[in-house]
Protein: Anti-sigma regulatory factor
Organism: Streptomyces cinerochromogenes
Amino acid sequence: MHAPLAPTTRLPIGSDTDLARVRRQVRQAAADLGFRLVQQTKLVTAVSELARNTLVHGGGGHMEMTLLRDGTRRGLRLSFVDAGPGIRDVDLAMTDGYTSAGGLGLGLSGARRLVQEFALDSTPGRGTTVTVTDWVSGLPSPRAGAP
Ligand SMILES: Nc1ncnc2c1ncn2[C@@H]1O[C@H](COP(=O)(O)OP(=O)(O)O)[C@@H](O)[C@H]1O
Ligand SMILES: [Mg+2]
């Protein structure tokens, strides 16, 4: 189960330009898999927050993107990886409004609500990996010109 459909793609996250590229690639992959527009937008919004955290809090890193198949479901799994300071108190970091850096503190908590699966793995002093996965069932829907 969860067999990869294609090799994992790895994209750097080291600049605002990289953030834009990551968003664009995720939007494209989600559309290709047949995710509906609302699901695409939720996923890209979560990705935007997580990739920005990788850049701002993690000091840069990369995203790994893997296409999955599980029976008739197809999925998109995205990992945001950095070797930054890590998160000492994950529950606190996941709390709405908590920020250590003058942000809004809604990135992690918001991202968790926007995706189907969410996992945060962090070791203080070693880094952080956040992995999100979204699934779609059935055949890919036609993209262009569909009513
Ligand atoms: N990749 C990361 N590395 C280290 N700390 C992180 C990382 N991602 C999030 N955090 C911590 O979790 C807090 C909450 O993140 P978030 O909800 O996105 O809020 P914000 O980015 O606005 O501060 C951050 O302020 C930071 O302390
Ligand atoms: Mg944030």
Observations:
- The pocket of magnesium ion (ligand 2) is lined by residues 49, 52-53, 103, 107 (CB under 6 Å).
- The chain has one domain: 8-137.
